[in-house]
Amino acid sequence: MLNYRNKKAVFLLLLLVICVNNACIDKNEQGEILTDFDISGDEKQVVFSYSEGSKISIYTLDLDTEEISLVIKADDNWDYIKPQYFSDHQILYIKAKADDIFENEVCIYSTNNETEECFDLGEGILIDILISENHEKLFFTKASQYKRNSPIGIASPRGMDIFEYSFSEKRITKITDLNAYSIPNIERLVSDQLIFELHSIDNSGMYQYVAKDSLVSFNPINDPRNFKGRLGYGKPAYSAKSDELFFTAPYQIYKMNPEDRIAELVLDNRGINLIAGLKIFHKNETLLYTESFSSSFIILSLKSGEIKKFSIDF
Predict the structure, then answer these.
(1) What is the pLDDT of residues 203-215, one digit of tens each?
(2) What is the pLDDT of residues 117-129, one digit of tens each?
């Protein structure tokens, strides 16, 4: 069987930065690093996946006390990735079989009674998940293949598309027909308009899928990094309060209004590290981000420019 943990290097690199020419590294060399994370509705906690050697568990960080709590511990059979808050006391995540990357499901864990409810989303490799605005649907990306693109390349998920799952009807609907090289991140604007990071032979960056065969670029019109549609812009994070889309490039963080799509620089991290993950505090003008192969959360105030770092030390 294909081994989920052995392929985690490519999966992480797709999340952290584009895996150019398949020049990826072995996950087991990474030690302890943060992977995926989300901010609670009251903005007092962060839930995150943490890679410890070959196992990936879920923890929470209290932003006031800096206390770290274990939510779900990985074992020899399962890893737990892509956690996000479903409600104040429920966490949504992907549960992935350690020794077979095609065996995975989406689960909701209740922190009140420590119960787990899981949903089978069909064949394929789950890459990203996103709850709808009204919590009635789940959007997710899934890869249909796991292969090398060249004889010397490292095998990784391929053939990706976006789907939705109706909780009430228990029905899966395919939204896109892209068969893309990679769709590592999806985000929603107002009214569940989806925007996603895409990498394919013909298109790279941020896009919207309006209808069948209708792919609309959502890259910044002024193209501040001069990427010209090649790689680069990704990890979209939308603030409904300010109606701004934040994104990475990949050492920088930019913001733009979705209507005019004129990008403004927020943070330049060149010479320091790649931006691995990005989330928005919706109640105030603050960003939460991580750097590649790091074990720290970084909070950036958009008003003052003040930076506060939370190191994850067990």
Answers:
(1) 889 999 876 667 8
(2) 999 999 999 999 9
Q: Which residues contact 209 (CB under 8 A, 6 or more apart)?
A: 162, 175, 176, 178, 194, 196, 215, 216
Residue 151 has a pLDDT of: 75
The string of pLDDT tens digits covering residues 239-296 is 999 999 999 999 999 999 999 999 999 999 998 899 999 999 988 889 999 999 889 9
Q: Is the pLDDT of residue 3 over 80?
A: no
3-state secondary structure of 25: coil
Phi first, then psi, for residue 142 (nearest 5°) are -145, 140
Q: Which residues of 240-251 are buried (b: 16+ CB within 10 A; e: fewer)?
A: eeeebbbbbbbb
262 token code pair: 């004129």
Question: Cα separation of 101 and 10, whole Å?
Answer: 12
Task: Residue 8: name the closest of 108, 83, 79 by CA.
Answer: 79
Sheet of strand 90-97: strand arrangement? 78-87, 90-97, 104-110, 115-119
Domain positions in the chain are: 8-221
CATH fit for domain 8-221, picks 2.120.10.30, 2.40.50.220, 3.90.420.10, 3.40.50.150: 2.120.10.30
Q: Tally Cβ neighbours within 10 Å of residue 105.
A: 16
CA–CA distance, 104 with 124 (Å, rounded to integer): 8
Residue tagged 């209004």 (tokens): 257
DSSP 68-131: EEEEE---SSEEEEEEEEEETTEEEEEEEETT-TT-EEEEEEETTTTEEEEE---SSEEEEEEE
Q: What angle do CA 99, 104, 106 make, to 5 degrees?
A: 145
Nearest to 138 by CA among 206, 84, 74, 79: 84
Task: Write down the pLDDT at residue 97.
Answer: 94
User: Max alpha carbon distance in the chain (Å)?
Assistant: 51
